[in-house]
Structure formats: C-alpha cells, structure tokens
Please model this.
Amino acid sequence: MGTPLFIVDAFAARPLAGNQAAVCLLEKPADAGWMQQFAAEMNFAETAYVVPGEEAFQLRWFTPAVEVQLCGHATLASAHILWETGRADRDAEIRFDTIHSGRLTCRRNDDWIEMNFPSDPPAACDPPAILAESLGATLRACAKGRYDYLVELDSEAAVRGLDPDFRRLAELPVRGIIATAPGEGDFDFVSRFFGPAAGIDEDPATGSAHCVLAPYWGERLGRQQLLGFQASQRGGTVRVHVNGDRVILGGQAWTTVAGEIAVGAAS
Model:
C-alpha cells in the first residue's frame, strides 16, 4: 500500500483555480531530503506532509527548491483532506504543530475553512533600488514583514500589469515580494506574490502573504474584516480578519486528484 497523495486547489472559488498543493498523508515522519526530492517531483508551489500525533498533526511544507517556514494554501489543503477522508471529525477543529510557526488551527465555517495564523504587520522601509527596477513600477509605499517585502502600487491595473525581472528579484534577501493596491468592485485589496528566491516565480494564491496584507490594509482602511483577491492567472480569493496578534484566513478548497505515492517514503 502506497502513501496517500492528493492534489487540492486552495483559495479557489471553483475547481481548477486558486493554488495547487500536493498533500501527502504519512504514517510517521519522513527524511527531509526525501520530502524535498518528492516536492521537486510534484513541482507545485508547495507540497505538504502531514503526520498524525496525539494532540495535533505535524505539518511541514516544501517548495520544489526549499522547505518554507509558513504556508497558507497547503495548510488549507491539508485540513480539507483530513476532513474529507474522515481522519478528522468534520465538526472538530484541526490542530497542526509546525517547526517554525508554532501551533496553527483550522475550523470549518459552512463551505469555507478558517485558519488561525500569526499576524505579521509590516514595518515601513526604504525600498532597495533593485526592487522598483525589477518590478518596473513606481512604488507608492514599501514595507517589510518577517519574510517578505510589501510594495503598494497606485492601482489594481498596475498590480495586474506587472511583468517582473524574476532573476533580479531573486537577488533580494527575502522569501518573496508582495505587490498590492486597493481593490475594485467586491474586493478591498488585490495582490500578487513573487518568490523566485524560493523557487516560485509567481505563486497563484498565497495565504501567508495575507498575514502581512491583513494588518496593512486593516490599518489603512480602518476595518478588521476584509476580502482580498490575488490577481494571478489562476486567481485566489482570501477572507481576512485581524484579531490582535493573529489573523484569521478564510478560503475554499477542492480535491482534484486522489491517489498514492508508489515509491516508499524514506524515514
């Protein structure tokens, strides 16, 4: 019997949208080298590895190139699969223990999944010259969170029209760059996320970036509950609720593939 493997579209209003994540359900912890190799094999923005525990599931995330310290869409996908496969009671809160981000929790709210993540309010800073040059845009504001730069542009159209120089962006000493602007229509803000240094030129829908976006736009707009849209080619919808030093991230998820890994997980 192989290791159960699922592909999930996360932060997606419908299947075949949002951000794809592979979810591997392991019986015991696996070797980090094997997990990295398999994540490269899957070649999605993130592959999540879930291991059962007494009080919480253990959770780790890998891009095709590196292990990451926090990932929203693959956490959303993991919770979705645990409920869908009956490994967690559908009315119960799911707890995940992570190496770098502590305890994360997920709960169901009708057709949405809500994740309790640490808030990451960005601090205003002067942008490095290479940042504006690589984006090819005029920056209205620049700030820096724990992992990423955040840059505000003049309009939603400016965010959607970005065509970055990914090679130069990869030289910046951060996980990624969040480009954002006020939203139009139903959305309070829009964003895009570029992470070439982590092996992802553009991420379709980035939950962890909204740990930065939520406090940033919450302060700017004077509201704690907001709706964001990640304006990638696939698109991603994220509800955010700023709650003190935590952010509640809400999204929907859809299973597109269910199968198993034919090669054994190295332990």
